[in-house]
Amino acid sequence: MAEKNKDGLDMLEGSLWDKLIFFALPLALTGVLQQLFNAADVAVLGQLVGKNAMAAVGNNISLIGLLVNLFLGLSLGANVVIGQNLGAKRMAKVHAAVHTAFLLAVATGIGIALLGEALTAPIMDWMAVPTDVRSMAEGYLRIYLLGMPVIGLFNFEAAIFRSRGDTKTPLWALAVASIVNLGLNIFFTMTMGWGVEGIAGATVIANAISAGILLYALCHTNTVIHIDLKDMHLDRHCLKEIVRIGLPAGIQGMVFSLSNLLIQAAINSLGADAMAASAAAFTVEINVFCIISAFSQATTTFVSQNYGAGNLARCKRVTWVAMLLNTAFMGALAIFILIFAAELLSFFNADQAVVALGITRLWYVVAPEVINVVMEGVSGALRGYGISLPPALITLVGICGIRITWVYTIFQWEPTYATLMAAYPVSWVVTTILLVLAYRSYMKHLKVIRL
Questions:
Q1: CA-to-CA distance for 285 and 289, rounded, in angstroms?
Q2: Using an 8 Å Cβ cutoff, are 366 and 288 in contact?
Q3: Confidence at residue 209, expressed as pLDDT on a 0 to 100 scale
Q4: Burial letters for 343-369: b for 16+ Cβ neighbours within 10 Å, e otherwise?
Q5: Res 356 pLDDT > 90
Q6: pLDDT per residue over 203-258, tens digit each?
Q7: Is residue 7 part of a domain?
Q8: For tag attachment on the chain, is the N or C end more exposed, with fewer CB atoms within 10 Å?
Q9: Under DSSP, is residue 190 helix (H, G, I), strand (E, B) or coil?
């Protein structure tokens, strides 16, 4: 369906719609499989242990998302730098960027793991985790944090493959890891009786396997993204560019998770049923975002290569075609989720109070996701051009600012679950308007800039 050359998917010539689908769908499935790690955790605990254990894991979802989003953002920086150099045919720079990205992933993962372990208890205090959930939530998080180095490594390795149009290899690696994760979840819970600690350990092991598979593939590929462990070095210019583009993108993702942490704290004030409902609903709804994120990352990658090649007209076409495709695929999945909301939520926990609250969340979050298509689309395009800080600042104001204000004003006046969930679409609308205005402004003055 899509043309390939020796360096992967040809993003510089030919039709766009088929290549964007060819790139984005495996990436979306990769995101879905990543979420199956959490889904397996939540489902096994909800069915075999109880809703308090399920709530304990759900309490950590936003915090884990915050940490993982930093990796995703930094890896997007690597994706853009490698992609722009591929488009400009600067293969020596591609080689340097690949090795620099690898070293950055390992160093960042170790740093986050150490910092997270030190801050686990204060974070639990800040989030006001209920006493009957606290010990399980803290135990799960401490073990999960041990896997941060391999989680970071997998995301950077996947970004390296994406930069040349290969989204299938990370998908296969994660498919293997997902099977291992599910098997270990059941074994550790049913046979060993380890509860949330066993679930967290299974996830760490599975993440290590996925990272190991991709490392093996990178060391044995004969393409330009080959990693030679004997030639491992840090290129200062590449590092600077990766951090310049990736850190704001990571902060942008972390802003979403930070605001979700605040909302999670408010959810905790509503009790274990609300916590369990949010855990189940989030596990379902995130699959819609996987599609949105996949097409956004496709936009970033295609724009970065074409910008490196100096083809601004094609960059703009990529943005709009990706948004249209994103709307179609996202809309189909969203409709399915809303129709079968009760059945999907019951898979995690059949408690009727939990299911009812979960349905409320899905309507407030999944139904207006089309707004997210535009928001992520223009953000992805701007990152492809190397413009990363403005979207991050806009997101800080539009997402975090609106949600903080909402929790401390509207929610305080009417402290119901539905009122709290309304913060999501309101913040998306404000942020999307600001991002579209910024995008139009930059497009008027954008010129080709060589690295």
A1: 7
A2: yes
A3: 95
A4: ebbbebbebeebbebbbbbbebbbeeb
A5: yes
A6: 899 989 999 999 999 999 888 888 888 888 888 898 998 888 888 878 777 777 77
A7: no
A8: N
A9: helix
Percent of the chain with pLDDT over 90: 31
From residue 266, how far is each of 149, 228, 269, 386 by CA, in Å? 30, 48, 5, 36
CA separation for the pair 101, 424 (Å, rounded)? 33
Q: Burial-class residue 202 by CB neighbours within 10 Å (0-12, 13-18, 19+).
A: buried
Tokens of 396: 């800080």
What's the distance, CA 49 to chain centroid?
Answer: 28
Q: Lowest mean pLDDT: which of 30-34, 46-50, 286-290?
A: 46-50
Q: Where are the extended beta strands (E) located within 262-330?
A: none
Average pLDDT over residues 325-330: 94
- List CB contacts of 182: < 8 A, sequence separation 6 or more: 36, 40
Report the SS3 class of residue 350: coil
pLDDT above 90: residue 323: yes
Q: For residue 290, what pLDDT band results from cuts at 50, 70 and 90?
A: confident
- pTM equals 0.76
Structural domain span for residue 67? 16-445
Identify the bridge partners of residue 4 per DSSP, sorted by sequence position. Answer: 9
How far from the centroid of its chain's Cα atoms is residue 408's Cα?
A: 27
CA atoms of 243 and 73, how far apart (whole Å): 9
- Which residues lie below 8 Å from residue 91, measured CB to CB, with a gap of 6+? 85, 224
C-beta of residue 423 within 8 angstroms of C-beta of residue 406: yes
- Asked whether residue 71 carries a pLDDT value surpassing 60, the answer given is yes
Res. 377 pLDDT band, cuts 50 70 90: very high
**Spatial CB neighbours of 440, under 8 Å, sequence gap ≥ 6:** none
Give Cα separations from 142 to 1, 118, 146, 190, 340 (angstroms).
45, 9, 7, 22, 35
Q: How many domains does the chain have?
A: 1
What pLDDT sits at residue 427? 93
Is 227 contained in some domain? yes
Q: Average the pLDDT over 270-277 and give the result.
A: 86
For residue 14, give the DSSP letter.
S
CA distances from 83 to 13, 53, 165 (A): 15, 43, 9
Q: Report, in this order, helix, strand and coil percent for the chain, each rounded to 5.
A: 85, 0, 15
Residue 373 predicted with pLDDT over 50: yes
